[in-house]
């Protein structure tokens, strides 16, 4: 790792002030992506601003017809939380399938969303459930948040404080996971929400995306068979050593069917 | 610029001065000379470096020492009783030959002890899932799973015996 200074702000405002005053400072949440990145010298921040001691960024609460999850809440906490398991079991399952137990004990939902890894699970939840990203200064609709490969709508110095997920009528998540990293080769969140069906795909493209044809078909009949014959174009999908674009396109339909089957 | 931190390691206070980019595992191994915690892959995959931070298993190769400031760290050295009596999970690994070369063992045992907190009645399949982040390159998983199953039982029996006293 290159050298950096370490800041431990005691409030979100302090953290924002540090980030605003130093363009090269970076936020560290759980560090499950950032620390490996630093170890490979792929990043050279001047300072790490650790949100670990900032009060008010953890916890899960029900707010009317939605769940609000603090940005520093770990995947293990989301996976085990009784409120999440009863109101949004698909989200508990998604969080419980990230990495391995030791990673889930450190990794946070806010960190995952801010990092916007194309193979991360949380983007499928934020977009597939019609969620909202809450920051220190505004609320950003999930549909507008992920703007590209590792790119989001966050401004420099903007910090995610919580995620809000409307509780769907039913939802399911299925992923074809890389057996070594447990990242999604393809992951699909399917949800029946008050505003209609949503289908969001992670792992397949540069960034999470919705599949209108599947949403339309499931709006007619919410069953795996409704997805028969719907094929995704491979043109813009990822090819790497784990899977070709064509294989990922095939997996999108397979995972979508499994997500519908799993929906509850 | 170096940072002063205070940890409680295996029940004892430890005051350290570390660089912000010092990993927790390096603070444990090099600053505190507790070399039972191993560095295998150094990429948060293999789990040889697993320790408990405030009672929860984490990969110390992917945690900064400064992030542990003010917190409790338990390493493999902290499991056995002061008189050397092995922790029930350590004893189970010995009994069931849950190790071959032994390199992954500290992390395996620390992960297995944490499983007792989360799922003390874990089935062999659940044990295998729990150990997804711990890699044994001798591929001795069969006996490791047997050892963990037995160790979980022994931890329950030990806890029950303590409660009865």
UniProtKB/TrEMBL annotation, chain A:
Gene3D superfamilies: 3.30.465.10, CO dehydrogenase flavoprotein, C-terminal domain, Uridine Diphospho-n-acetylenolpyruvylglucosamine Reductase, domain 2. It holds the Pfam family FAD_binding_5. GO terms for molecular function: anaerobic carbon-monoxide dehydrogenase activity; FAD binding. Residues 1-170 form the FAD-binding PCMH-type domain. It is an enzyme of class 1 (oxidoreductase). It comes from the Bacteria. The keyword Oxidoreductase applies. Its EC number is 1.2.7.4. Keywords: FAD, Flavoprotein, Oxidoreductase. SMART domains: CO_deh_flav_C. This is Carbon-monoxide dehydrogenase medium subunit. The lineage of its organism: Bacteria, Pseudomonadati, Pseudomonadota, Alphaproteobacteria, Rhodospirillales.
TrEMBL record, chain B:
It is an enzyme of class 1 (oxidoreductase). The keyword Ribosomal protein does not apply. Pfam families: Fer2, Fer2_2. The keyword Oxidoreductase applies. Keywords: 2Fe-2S, Iron, Iron-sulfur, Metal-binding, Oxidoreductase. GO terms for molecular function: 2 iron, 2 sulfur cluster binding; anaerobic carbon-monoxide dehydrogenase activity; metal ion binding. Its EC number is 1.2.7.4. Residues 3-79 form the 2Fe-2S ferredoxin-type domain. CDD domains: fer2 (cd00207). It comes from the Bacteria. Transmembrane segments: none annotated. This is Carbon-monoxide dehydrogenase small subunit.
